[in-house]
Amino acid sequence: MRLVSYIDRRRSAARSSFGAVVGTDIVELAWPGVTTLRQGLLAEGMQGLSRRLAAAGQAPSVALADVELLAPVADPGKILCIGLNYHLHAQEVGMAVPSHPSVFARFPSSLVGAGQPVVRPVESEKFDYEAELAVVIGRAGRRIPVAAALDYVAGYSCLAENSVRDWQRHSNQATPGKNFPASGAFGPWLVSPDEAGPLEDMTVIGRLNGAQVQSDTVAHMIFSVPELIAYVSTFTELEPGDVISTGTPAGVGLSRKPPLFLKSGDVFEVEISGVGVLRNSVIDEC
After folding, report:
1. N or C: more exposed end of the chain, with fewer CB within 10 A?
2. Hey, how many other C-beta atoms are within 10 angstroms of the C-beta on 250?
3. Model pTM?
4. In 111-183, which ranges are E strands?
5. What is the per-residue pLDDT across 233-258, written as a single tens digit (0 to 9) for each?
6. CA 69 to CA 4: how far, in whole Å?
7. Which helix (H) or strand (E) holds 165?
8. In what residue span(s) does the Fumarylacetoacetase-like C-terminal domain sit (predicted)?
């Protein structure tokens, strides 16, 4: 199952909703009082949403081409991102392999949906690309064991976890460089684990203007997805709709000679096998 959040602008009063992608259409799954995917996961979980899709008879509500896609989870309670989580990326930036995950937070306002432009802020020209696998939590849990961690996953998505590098390095905290409004992207949809396939088979690819700049397999992560879920859930309770972005492969613009940073007119794509392609153009902040 592929789930999207969207704005239907065909109506006289545009409204946001969520639903399941069936072919080139969307079957709306919202119901009174539950209009976001996070609310749907909190109320019924992935199994409940699957039952709602079956009950709807897959009757399309709107064509995928007629909506504006939002981030799959438009209102997450938490967005937790992992730094330095691929061996070759640690090597390219000259840092030791960490003994514990490096965790920082992003705010929902820092991410746009598929097809929407990401914004390079006026404060910096060092706007870097980062292709990442995003994990969306489907069940609440605290101190989740590694062996059971994947049972808490609602699905997977693509995330362009871009960085404003000079602001990221103002201190040893990455937060300022990760939260400029609309500087990253998330989407196009959440793919359920059964449709996405095994994690170890996933390849994370970043393309800039059609040229591949990043590529690695999820199997080469320093900390696996189950290990990340177990670690994060030790210090905070994970809830349905929470997002964990799992780190970027080698090939970032900062490490290239000369550096390769995003500029207005560029198009950055994140492709993850079994999940999909997230494509966004870049504009300068007005």
Report:
1. C
2. 18
3. 0.95
4. 111-112, 118-120, 127-128, 131-137, 153-160, 163-164
5. 999 999 999 999 999 999 999 999 99
6. 7
7. helix 165-168
8. 78-282
